[in-house]
Design goal:
Blueprint: E1 3-9, E2 11-13, E3 21-22, E4 25-30, E5 33-38, E6 47-50, E7 54-58, E8 60-62, H1 83-94, H2 99-115, E9 118-125, H3 136-147, E10 150-157, H4 176-190, E11 199-205, H5 213-226, E12 229-234, H6 238-248, H7 252-258, E13 266-270, H8 276-285, E14 288-291, H9 293-298, H10 306-312, E15 316-318, H11 331-346, H12 353-368, E16 384-388, H13 401-407, E17 416-419, E18 422-426, E19 429-430, H14 435-451
Parallel strand pairs: 1-6, 2-7, 8-9, 9-10, 10-11, 11-12, 12-13, 13-14, 14-15
Antiparallel strand pairs: 1-4, 2-3, 4-5, 7-16, 16-17, 17-18, 18-19
Length: about 450
């Protein structure tokens, strides 16, 4: 049995139900679980780690991403335009995606996430160019397994092309039949419903402006038949709201109700332009939101009513969104952005650093319905990260390790990340892959895509 014993941790931030913090405790990991937390554990282990100088946190959970966009970051022409124009500019570049591009972009995104304390990631992959094999998403599962992240792969889709009144061009749009057949294939091949599973499948039609009404209805039927969750973009911009009013004669959430996309097995990315009454309905039905503060600010989409959502009981997780609208995959910086944004918009008492950490841990767990992640407790999954307190950015600020993590300046890279009982980041470096190789190959593929 593989085992890791972390001795005398400076402080364990458990994020359990009582939000306990434990000082000077030991933590024993056996196989993929936390088997014991106590003041002194006298037991041999394959690896013993001195935790005296470390703060230990639960692994962060990223509830919305587009890994492939790591290859189209910081393109000058896309830096100062809002969502619809931004998409129209980038769709033709994304039409150049290949299996190799998907594989290396996944390694880049997951590597960034792991190095910033994220242990579980959702990716919504929805671009399937006509001239490429249908199984591009398989490359994501392959890469996620190699690097060691807990992966919820979303089989996205676009079926409403520009000529039919949608936003995307024909070359990245599939037929409903193609989408549903491949969605079923991906579920049957990859979905693992075990509480400690390392891979799950989500069905994720892209958005109201890129997917037909019938596909929305058939996708949720398929998801519920197999017991998998469903995810889509919703209420991200005023343009989308106007599209729904003009196309369907109703607001975005009304449209979701019409196509049966409401419930505790559904969550939306963004949810910015939802009214308080709509949010109350989401709280009642336990329909969740992936909050993406950096992307929302960069694209000038607006600020979601997150403090109100939390107050009403809407399930809220944190997310970095796509790397072309962020332009990074850094969950620690995402927490800081959320904290500062809502302090600015809603007032000094509207949110705390611990509230933000709760979104990034407990909130993600609740949205994904994977109960064994999101906190440090005996019997739970061994997903966690450690940060050395003796770093320049913490100097003079050690009184609260949660605020230190969220607010200080040099915590972007953690010292150690453990996923499912395996050390995947050690001394700030990825363990399972060669970072230099990934960087070189990702840069090469990126230039090939952009220059076509």
């Amino acid at each position: 049995m593989s085992s890791i014993l972390i001795k005398n941790v400076k402080e364990i931030i458990t994020m359990d139900q009582k939000r306990n913090r434990l000082q000077g405790y030991d933590i024993l990991i056996e196989e993929n679980k936390i088997s014991k937390i106590d003041q002194e554990i006298k037991q041999d282990a394959e690896e013993v780690i001195d935790g005296t100088d470390y703060f230990l946190y639960p692994g962060l959970i990223n509830t919305h991403h587009h890994f492939y966009q790591t290859l189209t970051r910081n393109i000058a022409a896309a830096q100062n335009i809002e969502l619809f124009d931004w998409l129209k500019y980038l769709y033709p570049i994304w039409a150049n995606l290949t299996p190799r591009a998907v594989y290396y972009s996944t390694l880049v995104a997951c590597g960034e996430l792991l190095k910033t304390g994220c242990t579980t990631a959702v990716d919504q992959f929805y671009v399937f160019p006509h001239n490429q094999p249908d199984n591009l998403i398989d490359q994501q599962f392959r890469a996620a397994h190699k690097i060691g992240i807990r992966f919820h792969g979303s089989r996205g889709s676009m079926s409403l092309s520009e000529k039919d009144g949608g936003l995307p061009p024909d070359e990245v749009v599939q037929t409903e039949e193609e989408i549903l057949q491949d969605s079923q294939r991906v579920i049957e091949k990859y979905h693992d419903n075990d509480p400690f599973s390392m891979q799950r499948v989500i069905l994720a039609p892209c958005s109201p402006f890129s997917v037909t009404e019938n596909l929305m209805k058939e996708s949720i039927k398929l998801a519920r038949r197999y017991g998998v969750q469903s995810h889509t973009h919703l209420a991200e911009t005023k343009d989308e709201e106007e599209f729904c009013q003009e196309t369907f004669g109703m607001r975005p959430l009304e449209y979701m109700k019409k196509v049966n996309w409401i419930g505790d097995d559904v969550w939306y990315a963004h949810g910015i332009h939802l009214t308080k009454e709509e949010l109350k309905r989401m709280a009642e039905t336990k329909t969740g939101v992936a909050h993406c503060p950096v992307s929302n600010q960069k694209l000038a989409s607006g600020a979601a009513k997150v403090p109100y959502m939390l107050e009403e009981g809407v399930p809220v997780g944190l997310a970095v969104d796509g790397s072309a609208s962020n332009d990074s995959s850094n969950m620690i910086l995402e927490m800081k952005a959320a904290f500062l944004l809502h302090r600015l918009v809603s007032g000094i008492s509207s949110i705390t650093a611990e509230d933000v950490l709760a979104m990034a841990t407990n909130g993600g767990r609740n949205i994904l319905n994977q109960s064994q992640i999101g906190s440090i407790e005996e019997g739970k999954a061994a997903d966690m990260f450690m940060v050395n307190k003796n770093r320049l950015g913490f100097a003079g600020g050690l009184s609260d390790p949660v605020s230190a993590l969220v607010n200080t300046g040099d915590t972007q890279i953690v010292d150690m990340t453990i996923v499912n009982g395996e050390i995947v980041v050690r001394n700030g470096e990825l363990v399972a892959v060669d970072e230099s190789e990934i960087i070189n190959k990702a840069n090469k593929v990126s230039q090939e895509m952009i220059n076509q």
